[in-house]
Design brief:
Elements lengths: L2 H5 L2 H40 L2 H33 L3 H35 L6 H30 L4 E4 L4 E4 L1 H9 L2 H34 L2 H44 L1 H8 L5 E2 L3 E6 L11 E6 L2 H7 L5 E2 L2 H13 L2 H7 L11 H28 L9 H10 L1 H16 L4 E3 L3 H5 L9 E2 L10 H32 L6 H5 L3 H6 L3
Antiparallel strand pairs: 1-2, 3-6, 4-5, 7-8
Length: 514
């Protein structure tokens, strides 16, 4: 049995630890980025119109944004320490490059966020309305700039640019100031950042729309005063959230399509595994459901249940008859190319000893979870707009509960997207720039296999212990996050009426089926 030794391997445990902390952290990230923008828009609507509904919406969702922001910071700090501990060989190899965008993010974007967030929190009634509005917009802008720099670091791992391998130091080094500019202008960063940005709008829009619709159904069943609150306050907020959901969802679909096409060029193995393509094929079909993996020889094929002819070719090349690279042929081409790459052979030996396929089922199914839940959420947004058109109110308590559950879909989908991005890159932690290597560009020598990136000085027991502690700690923080979000979500808008005062009563909450 090889399962237990593999599970107790230091590299595997370090990957599990980083994966667990990343997924925990990324639960907060898209909601923080998206809510910062939506809250800024809400406050702008109040600033321009004077409509009380948008002031209350700003305060209500602003509190939820602050809770999410605080927990996001708490869960994110630990990740950077892992680079110097579990992944010290990776940090030694690319520290000068990878650390640069992270340093800019911390020293510039995060300080802008924290400074103006403090002004926004404590500035109600203390600074002018214009200054207060500017502060939340600066928070929203800085939050997105922060994401940009972090994604710049991650994108470099996906497609190295502006660097070269120095055989004397055994490290990858940035090619001067021009190399730093190339890092910022990395082609994949454009796709990744826009995709994450629209994912954040999508997630926050679903959160606003789902929570507001639940309040619509709850208030609409509480007599005339409740119905007035539902119509005058929660309905416009729900429609606002649904519009944001649809804008974000459309952006996710469009940017995801172009990002997938770019990945087919720079990381063909990832997309071949995700689409279930085992060999180079013209007019390749897309496998909707399947199990197993593509073998590296002629021994068989993965088990397929539903396929759509030509769709994989269209997704990769906008042509239903285009030829798409398959797993078996990509493996052969990678072995040939890497054996001609002196940087690879001098450090890792003959490439034929390696299997360059990522974990098949996690890559295959995370891609489908991401796309399926994204489509389902877009349909939810359309349903909300249709259900609330003209003078209608939705009173079904079942619809309200489903609206709450719909909030979880973008979170799961976004997490699946990161699992696909990171696991699909394996066995590389720094993926080789194939095009650069073919052109003789020095950046073609910048690459690193994951198994060689972990620290050799941290024993298995320490990695396992810290992983268990972090998992328990993050689990506890997750419970705190949920309880705080639930508590303040149940407070509502505090509309001055008999119904609003009664809405905080626990018996009333149970009455409406929470």
């Amino acid at each position: 049995m090889t399962v237990l030794p593999a599970a107790l391997d230091a590299v595997s445990l370090a990957r599990w630890q980083f994966g667990i902390t990343t997924v925990y952290h990324f639960i907060q990230v898209p909601l923080t980025i998206g809510l910062s923008l939506l809250v800024a828009i809400m406050q702008t609507k109040w600033h321009r119109s004077g409509d009380d509904v948008w002031l209350k919406a700003t305060r209500f969702f602003g509190k939820l944004f602050l809770i999410n922001f605080a927990l996001g910071v708490a869960t994110g700090i630990v990740q950077e320490f892992q680079f110097g501990m579990n992944w010290s060989e990776y940090s030694r190899f690319v520290g000068d490059i990878f650390g640069a965008p992270l340093a800019v993010e911390a020293l510039l974007a995060f300080f802008i966020e924290s400074t103006f967030l403090g002004i926004w929190i404590f500035g109600w009634g203390r600074v002018s309305k214009g200054m207060h509005l500017a502060s939340i917009w600066l928070v929203a802008i800085a939050t997105n700039v922060s994401a940009l720099w972090i994604l710049a670091a991650n994108s470099w791992m996906q497609e190295p640019v502006g660097a070269f391998f120095n055989p004397e130091t055994g490290r990858a080094e940035l090619n001067g100031s021009y190399g730093f500019v190339e890092l910022i202008l990395n082609p994949i960063l454009v796709y990744t950042f826009t995709h994450v940005f629209f994912t954040a709008v999508f997630t926050a829009g679903t959160f606003v729309a789902g929570l507001a619709l639940w309040w619509v159904t709850r208030a609409a069943n509480a007599g005339k005063e409740g119905e007035a609150e539902a119509r005058n306050y929660w309905k416009p907020i729900a429609r606002f959230g649904a519009v944001a959901l649809l804008i974000g969802g459309t952006g996710v679909a469009v940017t995801g399509h172009f990002q997938g096409q770019h990945l087919a060029e720079i990381q063909p193995m990832k997309m071949a595994v995700a689409e279930g393509i085992c060999m180079d094929t013209k007019g390749a079909a897309f496998t909707v459901a399947g199990f197993g993996e593509c073998p590296l020889d002629d021994s068989g094929d993965m088990t397929r249940f539903i396929t759509i002819p030509g769709l994989a070719s269209f997704l990769s090349h906008d042509d239903f008859n285009a030829e798409v690279e398959g797993v078996r042929d990509i493996q052969k081409r990678m072995v040939e190319a890497l054996n001609q790459n002196e940087s690879f052979t001098s450090r890792y030996g003959d490439a034929s000893q390696y299997d360059f396929r990522p974990p098949s089922m996690p890559t295959f199914w995370s891609f489908r979870v991401m796309t399926t839940l994204g489509l389902a959420s877009i349909l939810t947004g359309l349903g909300i707009l249709i259900g609330l058109r003209k003078d209608r109110l939705i009173k079904s308590k079942l619809v309200g509960k489903l609206a709450l559950w719909s909030i979880t879909a973008p979170f799961i989908g976004a997490s699946a997207g990161w699992i696909f991005t990171e696991m699909g890159r394996q066995p590389w932690i720094v993926y080789p720039n194939r095009a650069a290597a073919l052109q003789g560009d020095p950046v073609g020598g910048v690459l690193q296999l994951t198994e060689y990136a972990a620290s050799g000085a941290v024993p298995v027991a320490q990695v396992a212990t810290s992983m268990i502690i972090f998992t328990i700690l993050y689990g506890a923080l997750g419970v705190v996050w949920y309880l705080l979000m639930r508590r303040y979500a149940l407070e509502g808008l505090n509309v001055p009426s008999h119904y609003a005062e009664d809405s905080n009563n626990a018996d009333t909450l149970l009455k409406f089926g929470y």
